[in-house]
User: Fold this.
Amino acid sequence: MDINKIRDLVKEAQALHKEFQKGFLRVYSLSSSGDFGELREVLSELYGIIDKKFDVASQIGKASSLLGGDFEGFVKELQKNEHQMKFLLEELLLLVETPKMSFTEKAKINASLQRLLQFYRVYDYSITRAIQKLTGDIEGLIFISEEGKLPPANIADKIKKIENLDKKLELLISFIYYLYTRPSWVHKVEEALRDWHSKGLMWVEVRNVENNSGVEREHVAKILEGLTLIGVVEKRERGGEYVYKLRGFGEG
Assistant:
């Protein structure tokens, strides 16, 4: 599959998502009306759209391994969210198709509907973000590949700065998540660093922080990056890996 075909598929994914967004607004308006008949019709329409979206995402997925890197990651994010939305729509459709609904069945419908509405907020953001990233990557590759051209230095520099800012924003969002949901982990990571410093080790590897804190390595790495971003921790590269220390400890 050539890159222009992939671009067409991403554009199709974008168009379908806009159609889905428009249709989903009706779900919000019907969520408190109790009109399950009309809700069933809207859900059926949305299911038809999500079926197409899932198919397009699968086609993009088949080509993603050719491009690899971040592109493949965003395609997986796209597929994961489309799959989850399809599942929630199926769940709710099965419930509203019941011709006679008891109080218990109505309660199940409302619970399923609330799950759908809650997931949609995350879904809409994630899908929009993934499509934007895929579009940017595709357009960049096409630009570079045309007649062997390379982007002008100033454009390449701006692209790099935007990518760096985007990475920092993702790190910050991740760190804020830990601060609000797992503040004890952040404290344990800081204390683990402080403990190693007290033993004379100024630059500490992630695995050492993991051992002392009891927090899994994946989370330790993200927390350390967040602490670095806000200036609490310093980092440097050593032997192909990053090592960290609390700012103000030692002279490096």
